């Protein structure tokens, strides 16, 4: 594939309105094959809403999302099927399932075994099931959770729950992984480990779009970073571009832009 | 997370005194069975004889002997040590309390039904004294207790009910009986009295809990002794034999007093055996030999008609129908998390479909399909109904589904009533139903006849029981296999968090529809057998709520009471829910009151259900983990609505 072909993800002019509130305003963004892209912005800027528009949880009021050149249908399961997986800002694991089962659920789109296959349990069923388990255990080993495979998800410590969300998302063999504040609530060591994990994911050929507050994390990691303020993308570029942009500085220092950013609720996902 | 525990007696007694008292009490309870408990034969079962125990007296023997055995086992008596692997004295206390419960219940029901304590013979006094002595002694044994349990006080306003109850009573009596408000006042004062009693009991319960500090203390099981595997298999078989005998005994109890005594005994003995670690041992064995366990369970169930007469085979057949449908509902409610309040309608669809093609003279379709074809028709029609109801409603989340299914259940019943030739085309013969459904005859095996199987006469209900058991086996198989597969995991994921499940690539609507259709199909199969068992299908058999199962409310209760998402849970829950109202008929007016109270007590004691989900059992991991993060909990709750 040459660099001139269509990007992996191509978002054009996405707008999301809730009644009078425009949470995302005419945002365009591209993610190329093998890239790590950052998305930053103050609380309530519309980052999570933007993710929800990409993954079919919300139907954007305007704009289109293309993945590998085709427009994505606004249905979460079809988006995942197409190859975009995500994690949630507020961890949403299947709390009463084991760690392994959580990852197996992530394999859902990549397996076919139906109800008759499950009842009859022909050799093919056992084969598919064993393959799923093997793949799931590989992912658990990759994220460092293999020793917790039989624990209930809700009994994991916070940092491991975040890792499990990533493992579960990776189970669907995505081409693009969306991470919504993957280091929220982590200590510096865990954050370092998360950085390593994101690099390792990229090295496996998965592109990553990551929302973060931690500047160090973002600038260590990302090829490009986009800044969202009050639903609008105000700048996009490499570390220097973003850091020296005065609109970014004022947004982060809280100085008035046009009108001050309202103290919006922390999150919606 | 870990609660601190200590091993101390509740009543300070010298160790030997406590042991002796417990042993003597247990002996006295058992021995009292050989004496007369009362002097007239008016009390059911006739407890007037010396030397030949009957009914309740056998329960006393069992309670006394078990208490004694557990006492000796925890003391480490050679030959009995296997009965108490944990050596916890709590087991002895629970058993002794069970003996006291049986004793207290027997003595009070004798003296209230016959009018006064004067009706007790020496045996009755020995029984009561022995029960008390045993518990006093057991409270003096070193028990596993929590170091601190705070005293919970109920909402202060509730205590206003205590003075209000006598005031209401006086007021109700002060009003002349001919005044129109008199019945209202009587009802009101009755309700007040019940509420006040409940408050008093609850508060006393909290008080006792804070003093005894016995709840939620589990000793770890020591590693079991190595046994050859054939011995382990034999142990499983023996355990199922004992279990089958105990359940058969319960179904066969022929008067209500005996059944209540039996339930008390069983409840406390299960607690005692859990405390002694014996149940834990058994569970480990059953997990090790899965196929043997399944086989033993079915053999035990199949042995039922061989152990008992036609009368109880009929009860057991109805229990089996109810339990099987409850298990089908558990796919919908327990696995996929869909609240279906009209599930019994699918049983009805299956039954009506089978009745219409059964060759009954009242059926407008004059065909008689062979039974296997009728089963397929029943299953298919039921499934179609499931899809038709599900397709428009399953796109909704939460409470809407409950309301729509509730409506569908009633629409089904009323439609069956109206397809009677007057208010609609004649299909179902209206509220008279479809009578005279012919008996089954499969490959020359006539279900209406008594057959000798293995030298034992099996009658009509025995035949249908065995057929129904096959259907139950089918539903168990489907539940077990589908529940533990890609589809089952997707259902559980939807139940846990539908938004996250869809984000993992699960087509929520399709899978919910699948659960709904499968559940409907299995209930339909059960319905085809039910039509033949009951001879007649009428619309009134399929209501939302009724005093007797199966109806949608009871089905749901069986699933929740038994344990959501498990196989044995709904089976156990359905058995209990079928037997309790049936055996409580002797309480006449108080039947429903006592039944309701029993349900409340059960759900208080075991909110996770009688047989909790394996997933809940995994909580043993919790001890070595820090507490799960709580910070985000409130926001998660909010976002579920938002996303
Ligand atoms: N479902 C919704 N309905 C109404 N308003 C919403 C909804 N989801 C998000 N919002 C609003 O959109 C804005 C952006 O929120 P969000 O995307 O969560 O911000 P961020 O993730 O950048 O912190 C907030 O003001 C939030 O209140
Ligand atoms: Mg956010």
UniProtKB/TrEMBL annotation, chain A:
A Pfam family it matches: BCA_ABC_TP_C
GO CC terms: plasma membrane
GO biological process, one term: L-valine import across plasma membrane
GO molecular function: ATP binding; ATP hydrolysis activity; L-isoleucine transmembrane transporter activity; L-phenylalanine transmembrane transporter activity; L-valine transmembrane transporter activity
Keyword 4Fe-4S appears in the UniProt entry: no
Gene3D superfamilies the record matches: P-loop containing nucleotide triphosphate hydrolases
Protein known as: ABC transporter ATP-binding protein
Organism, as annotated: Kitasatospora aureofaciens (Streptomyces aureofaciens)
From TrEMBL, chain B:
UniProt keyword terms in alphabetical order: Cell membrane, Membrane, Transmembrane, Transmembrane helix
Molecular function via GO: branched-chain amino acid transmembrane transporter activity
GO cellular component: plasma membrane
Compartments where located: Cell membrane
Segments for region (Disordered): 620-643
Chief localisation class: membrane
Protein name, as recorded: Branched-chain amino acid ABC transporter permease
